[in-house]
User: Fold this.
Amino acid sequence: MTIPAELWRAFPCDPAAAPGAPFSPTYVPVAQGSGRFDLGDVPVLYTAELPEHAVAEKIARFRGSVLRDYHLEEFGRRLALVSLAVPRERAADILDLCDPAVLARHSMRPDHVAARDVRVSQAVARSVYEAGFSGLRSWSSSFGEWHAVVLFLDRIPMERLSFAAPVPLTTRSPEVVAGAGALAMKVG
Assistant:
């Protein structure tokens, strides 16, 4: 599997934030540990292969309510969508855990990759990391046809990624409408 040329991230954005500062496209919280594929001692960047998937990850917590513009804010900042590219030579070092042959070759079980228990899925990430890979590709926790790409930032540093300009999101943004629709959410 070839990692797509373009990956996506939704994040709370401050257009005046310096690169790497909070609310910039390149900011990753220092305290990680509760995420599905967090390593704890190595920062990871979660990305999506589709823009609507990146948005859906941010709005899923509002399922059951009508999605309004104020739901598209975190920490007092408007959510934005940004595309990014991984250098081609590093993309080949990302292990595709969606491929049954790869799972078999690395003695991994699909139910461990997709586990809700983060201790199990984090053990998978640790195994991938210790095998020398730069990241992993896995199914979304929402839908099997959506895929996430998790980058180990000590192996693919932010400086090696190419980021486009972030685009602020509204309830009229096509990616918001598509993400909400996939989650069976009404947009108001």
